[in-house]
Specification:
With 681 residues, the chain is α+β, with helices and mostly antiparallel strands. The chain is built from 26 helices and 24 strands. The strands form six sheets. Strands 14, 15, 16, 17, 18, 19 and 20 form a seven-stranded antiparallel β-sheet that branches. Strands 2-13-10-3-9 form a five-stranded mixed β-sheet. The chain binds 2-(butylsulfanyl)adenosine. 2-(butylsulfanyl)adenosine binds next to strand 3 and strand 8.
């Protein structure tokens, strides 16, 4: 049948092409075709297989997608046991000497004999797997289990695009390639983000996520968990010419199209291994996946055979660990730390634990939502993670170890006031963080506040940068912006990297800033939600600082573009006596600006009332109507709600009018509006 043979040829071509692109994309990280072209090839193969089911082979890329769940995982006996590696507990250089000494002694080498050649590899933090290829075809994948018997997880491993379904090149009759299945950190983060969004459980670490995926009964679930693989060892084989060294073995795996980690290095004696250990330690945090150490292997296969095994561990290999990045300890209490912007970060007080190379007693809990999500409670055993220079964090509680009733932590209840300055703590409705309202008064926020105060668009004090602010605050020379105006040449010239000349320049810049505008001054105060534009509006509307200081929330909302949230922030700020004190000190320091008359309302008739405009009014433009309402103390909003007092409707009024009628809101026409505002003055 020439037709079918043409189809068979085409299918074979497509399978090879698609797997070639898979390898380039997933293993070499160097895509060879655009996604659209890949999709086209894939769909063509799918169509071909649908038309000719007999062409659907086991190594077809279409067979990677998950199928129906299995009733259970079948046991697999390993003809060649899957060994474990001895772990060198001494994490210093001495660990390398210990291993080399053992190897040399076992080989009967004396001090005069040449150094032994080793291969350094990474110790991947995933789970061990054995991939069985018969005549190049992946026929089975099994977990390590107890080393003798593992579980058949072929259905899940097939979904891993990095693992070839057919080996490239001249494959032996039989070969078991062993290695580690793991999950990259970025894939892990993305997976957890998806889980969180779907309201499903999040995984503690990449290893657990990978192990869970591989042991799924339902391969459709595994297919949605992004997994990766590195080969590092050999199991049962037939018709395979054994390479002379471990390094050559890995080269052969790579030639077969199987992923092999690039971080491997052949060296002689202890010095090379020590250098490898140090190089990988420095690289550890930059790697896109977790490792818990490095592995040293005697490179020559003949020497490996000579060394053999003790119990389940080869004498020719050792794992040299790095200090663990995760440990379990007790959560003693939860405190808070006040950041530069006033954000209160909950901090776990821990029973001291050695993790990531240092003793950790504090770890971040991020915010209240994270604490709730992880369900961390004081008294829990918790997993603490410290990766490199990253701030230690509490990953989550060890729920199996929770005893008795533990109370949930409520930040606002525990800290109604700032532990640093005593000001009120607030948390906005849609915000994750709670904040200290202390602003300029709170020492934790001082540095940030001072920098903002001095910035170009605020008081414009040239030369007052973060290094200098750090010094001034740390030495308690400056506590509030007002203190800047009391600085003298002596205090400044004594600071680090501050000569008399730069001290004089700074003083001149401070002096110059005394002449400013009310808008700049308001902006400089650093009130939350008050940017440059709002500060200008406030200055224009109130005209004087006193008028602003005495405005209540309702009065603040009269300012164009100021809604309830901003009005609240401003009122909160001036409700703190400390803030008012600093403002007064600044005034006393001789800051000058021009004050004008407030843009006072013509009348207060519309005061506190909200209007919505809709349709076209006969004689007034929308802006004119808005200005008229605001001039009488009213506010104009864009949408109708229960809070709307009046809807002003003109010609062709639409849905807003209907909504107003539904809600029973008073409806005015232009005349009605005029009468309301202008009557009886
Ligand atoms: S070789 C001959 N090489 O560590 C010994 N194992 O305790 C067979 N592992 O279960 C293992 N990275 O999952 C070897 N580069 C590496 C490894 C590695 C991680 C794991 C493996 C095994 C455990 C041994």
């Amino acid at each position: 049948m020439p037709l079918l043979s043409a189809a068979a040829d085409r299918a074979a071509f497509l399978r090879a092409e698609i797997e070639r692109h898979n390898h380039a994309y997933y293993v070499l990280d160097a895509p060879t075709v655009p996604d659209a072209e890949y999709d086209r090839l894939y769909r063509e193969l799918e169509a071909l297989e649908a038309a000719h089911p007999e062409l659907r082979t086991a190594d077809s890329p279409t067979q990677r997608v998950g199928g129906a769940p299995l009733p259970g995982l079948a046991a697999v006996r390993h003809a060649v046991p899957m060994l474990s590696i001895r772990t060198e507990t001494d994490t210093t250089e001495q660990g390398v000497h210990n291993f080399d000494t053992r190897v040399r002694n076992a080989l009967g080498l004396g001090p005069a004999d040449p150094p032994v050649e080793y291969l350094g590899e990474l110790k991947f933090d995933g789970l061990a797997i054995s991939l069985r290829y018969e005549h190049g075809l992946l026929v089975r994948a099994a977990t390590r289990g107890d080393g003798e018997t593992g579980e058949d997880v072929t259905h899940n491993v097939r979904t891993i695009r990095q693992i070839p379904l057919r080996l490239a090149g001249m494959a032996p009759a039989l070969i078991e390639i062993r290695g580690e299945i793991y999950m990259r950190r970025d894939d892990f983060d993305a997976l957890n983000a998806r889980q969180r969004e779907a309201g499903e459980k999040v995984f503690v670490n990449p290893r657990n996520a990978a192990a869970g995926a591989v042991r799924q009964l339902d391969s459709r679930i595994a297919a949605r968990r992004p997994l990766s693989f590195f080969a590092y060892g050999l199991g049962e084989h037939a018709g395979f010419v054994l390479p002379a060294t471990q390094a050559d073995l890995l080269e052969r795996f790579a030639d077969f199209g199987v992923p092999v980690c690039e971080h491997r290095s052949v060296s002689s004696g202890v010095d090379g291994l020590i250098a490898f250990h140090a190089r990988i330690a420095a690289l550890r945090n930059a790697l896109p996946y977790d490792i818990d150490g490095v592995v040293y292997k005697v490179n020559r296969a003949d020497l490996q055979r000579e060394l053999g095994f003790v119990t389940r561990e080869p004498r020719w290999a050792v794992a040299h660990k790095y200090p663990a990045q995760e440990e379990i300890t007790r959560l003693l209490d939860i405190g808070v730390q006040v950041g530069r912007t006033g954000a209160l970060t909950p901090v776990a007080r821990l029973e001291p634990v050695f993790v990531g190379g240092v003793t950790v007693t504090n770890a971040t809990l991020h915010n209240q939502d994270e604490i709730d999500r992880k369900d961390v409670r004081v008294g829990d055993w918790v997993i603490v993670r410290r990766a490199g220079d990253v701030i230690p964090e509490v990953v989550g509680p060890v729920l199996e170890r929770r005893e008795g009733e533990l109370l949930r932590f409520d930040l606002l209840a525990s800290y109604p006031t700032c532990p640093v300055c005593g000001s009120h703590v607030v948390r906005g409705e849609d915000e994750a963080v709670a904040r200290c309202t202390g602003g300029l008064f709170c020492p934790a926020q001082r540095k940030q506040a001072l920098l903002h105060f001095a910035c170009r668009r605020a008081m414009d004090i040239e030369g007052l940068g973060d290094k200098l602010v750090d010094q001034l605050v740390d030495a308690s020379i400056v506590k509030t912006p007002a203190d800047l105006y009391k600085l003298g040449i002596l205090a400044l010239a004594n600071l680090e990297r501050m000569g008399e000349k730069s001290a004089q320049n700074l003083l001149a810049a401070i002096e110059k800033s005394r002449n400013t505008t009310l808008a700049r001054f308001i902006f400089a105060l650093g009130i939350r939600n008050v940017g440059e534009a709002t500060a200008k509006e406030l200055a224009r509307h109130f005209g004087s600082l006193d008028a602003l200081l005495t405005a209540d929330v309702a009065a603040l909302q009269q300012v164009p573009d100021i809604g309830p949230i901003v009005a609240e922030s401003i009122a909160d700020f001036f409700a703190e006596p400390h803030n008012v004190e600093v403002v007064e000190q600044l005034r006393a320091a001789g800051l000058r600006w021009e004050e004008g008359a407030p843009a006072a309302p013509v009348s207060g008739k519309a005061s506190g009332k909200t209007f919505v405009l809709t349709g076209t009014l006969p004689t007034m433009s929308r802006d004119e109507a808005k200005a008229l309402i605001e001039a009488h103390g009213g506010k104009v909003s864009g949408s109708v709600s229960k809070k709307t007092d009046y809807v002003v409707a003109g010609a062709e009024a639409g849905s807003k009018l209907i909504k107003a009628q539904d809600l029973g809101v008073d409806i005015l026409d232009e005349d009605g509006l005029r009468r309301l505002l202008e009557s009886g003055d």
